[in-house]
Predict the structure of GTP 3',8-cyclase.
Amino acid sequence: MLEDKHELVDKFGRRFNYLRLSITDVCNFSCSYCLPNGYQCDTPRTFLTQTEITNVVSAFAKLGTKKIRITGGEPCLRKDLPAIIERCKATSGITEVALTTNGFNLFDNIDEYKAAGLDAINVSIDSLDPNMFKLITGHDKLQHILKGIARAQQIGIKRIKVNAVLAKAFNHNQLKDYLAWIKHQAVTVRFIELMETGNGTQFFEQNHLSGQGVKESLLAAGWLQVVKGTLNGPAQEFWHPDYQGRIGLIMPYSKNFCQSCNRLRISALGKLHLCLFADQGIDLRSALNCGTPEQAVEQTVKLLRSAMSNKTISHELDKRFTGATKHLAMLGG
Ligand code: SAM
Ligand code: SF4
């Protein structure tokens, strides 16, 4: 395929057409692998404003980005989320706006999010057992979150995924629960291998599991691996003729995982992270606020282009290098 000079491409030929945009690092849950002691605010700070968000999304769109995923912390804690969705969706070139959420207020707000232009949701559900769910997140909200997903289906949100982090302590033996659930639900359940973070070393050492076991169980039960397009990200996906839903596997510790990397990340403080585990972010805020909106977008485009030469071939999680990432609520996973 010919390279478009306006695209973001790194020196390894990877194209970046997908932006994960964090809009807050605040969260109301205390998932044991992410914020086990709940959210702690260490320094005063201001999250990206709607104007800054419009400028950063426009800059990415000029460079070929088509899909934005809004994440956090918990993005639904921002009262202006509908306006943010609307601004992302109104940006020329952006064809899909997705949201990653713990789902705490989905039931009440999904109609408004859809009306604002939301196309897709990922909801984190690490166990389908209500007691275990409460133990993991600190909240007895599983049924309410499932109602939110049902509402999203009812109003026609087409792409619904459920994220479950694989951990020995809570869900390694629950594949059958998820399979029973997706038998009649057009939902993709994605198992994510637990990643080590700066604050999560002990939990990681006690709980990390490879997704390979899940993959082998699926293949043995007649599930088939979906052949990926060249622009798809690193997830592996499986389908089965008897199931309406699908299973995905995200295995960042597997060989060549980073080869299909297609995403860049912006933190809620306006830093560009070339990798989830980069050792620092590149501050875009002065560019995002310089002069007229057109000038701000132009400056940001320049910065983004020049940053690409620093993208490394792979994370170094296998060497236990977690970069600046203390927990994934900082950046949105
Ligand atoms: N609060 C929202 C949520 O939970 O969906 C969005 C932010 S959360 C950081 C994004 C995703 O990262 C969630 O699916 C979460 O389960 C996942 N995650 C958090 N910490 C992780 C870790 N150490 N390893 C793997 N996935 C993790
Ligand atoms: Fe909050 Fe999401 Fe982290 Fe859970 S995974 S603590 S919901 S940011």
In short: The CA atoms of residues 12 and 313 lie 7 Å apart.
